[in-house]
Structures are given as C-alpha cells and as structure tokens.
Amino acid sequence: xxxxxxxxxxxxxxxxxxxxxxxxxxxxxxxxxxxxxxxxxxxxxxxxxxxxxxxxxxxxxxxxxxxxxxxxxxxxxxxxxxxxxxxxxxxxxxxxxxxxxxxxxxxxxxxxxxxxxxxxxxxxxxxxxxxxxxxxxxxxxxxxxxxxxxxxxxxxxxxxxxxxxxxxxxxxxxxxxxxxxxxxxxxxxxxxxxxxxxxxxxxxxxxxxxxxxxxxxxxxxxxxxxxxxxxxxxxxxxxxxxxxxxxxxxxxxxxxxxxxxxxxxxxxxxxxxxxxxx
Length: 278
Fold this sequence. Notes:
globular; alpha/beta; single chain; six-stranded mixed β-sheet; seven-stranded mixed β-sheet; Nitrilase/N-carbamoyl-D-aminoacid amidohydrolase; 17 strands; 28% helix
C-alpha cells in the first residue's frame, strides 16, 4: 500500500507577517526533516490582528505578502509542498480575502481557495464575530493535486457545511483540509465532533491544522489540531494549544475501502423539501 506523510503545524500566529514567518519556520523545517511530503498550517497563518485599522494597514496582495513569499522560498528549499491554511490578503479589486494557498515543492503556487462561508455569529459568551465585514467570500469549491493525492480545500467555518465536503468528495478528493482558528467556546464544544463527522460522511482524510492559545492581539483559539482517517479514526492529535507538529501517513487505498463499505456518496437521492413548520 502506497503511503505519503502529512504534517500539521499548530501555530500561535503573531500580529505581523514577519513575526508570523519567524514563528512558523522552525515548525515547517521540523516537519520537512521528519519526512512530510505535505505540510499544512492553520487559518490566518500570515497574521492575526483584531484591531481593524491595524489589520487593514497590514494586509498585502498575495504576491507581496512577506509570509507567503517566505513560505514559497521554504517549500523550494526543502522540496516539500506546503498548504498555507489561509493568508489574509488583499484582492485585485481592493477587497480582502481569507485565502488558502497550496505551494508546490518548487515554490510555485499550485492552487488557491477563498473561504466561502463567513463566520458571522453572536456566541452565548457575548463574543461577536462579523467576518463578512472584512472579507469577500469565495464562490467556487477547489480540489488541487498534492503529494498525498487530490486535496479538497476548505477553511474553518466551512466545516459546518457538509454539502461542501460532499461535493469535494464526489469530485475525487481523498483528503480535505480544514485549517482553522476556532474560538475556544466553539472549539471545546464542537471541534472534534465536526471533524470526525466530515471524515465519516465523505470517507476522506481530514487535515485540521489549528491556531492555539492566547495570541498577541488578545484572542484565544482552541488548538487540538487533528488528522482523521476516512473511517473517522483519529490518527494524530495535539493534546493542547501549544505550537507543535503532528503527523500521520495517508493511504489513498483506505479512502476507497471506506467509500466501498459505506457508499453514501452514490446512494443519495433528490427529494422534495418539506413545507415550513407552522
């Protein structure tokens, strides 16, 4: 059975691109030295800044972002593919995007995905988030070639929309990324349950690199990065919020076995929606 090693870098990203690169680089190098063919970082890997004015001043176009430039150089030097879970970047039209970026072993950008589902919520704890006030949502789902096979791209809040995951799996994704910066209340309550459910529903590997801990800008994120197999089993897990690397071997044959055992991706049928409840 052919396998390929994937590593997730759990980060605690600072508030500037330069500091973020200095924070991530040692973990990326560690993952590459341990034999990873694909290295995945979390959502917001290039900077996390809650102050809107400072964030808008810091955000750069993808090609000019110093974190992205630095990661591309690392990928070429280490000859490894790196999935930037997302970089907060300026679009060509002047708007901003929460953009996932797959970098090939030659340092070239293989694919990008702009986060589709915006985290606009009021939590019971009093936390209020309006991601749509900062970022323009994406409009297309993306699968990209990678060293571990066809890779479906999602970001954080996308995990709550199983239709997106099913579409990626039906299109041939053997693994689906879920880089995240989950809040602590939602992470503690839902993180592992959602990830394992998406793996079971799609028969795909789930690669969930997370931000973790108390950040420079004052936010707290949940951590507990996870790699989950296509049968819903946890293959690797970070047990806390600390920056670290976790890794596991990916085998496309296991995806085929899971989907043959539970063929829900092909058994689905169209149906009429119910009438709204009175």
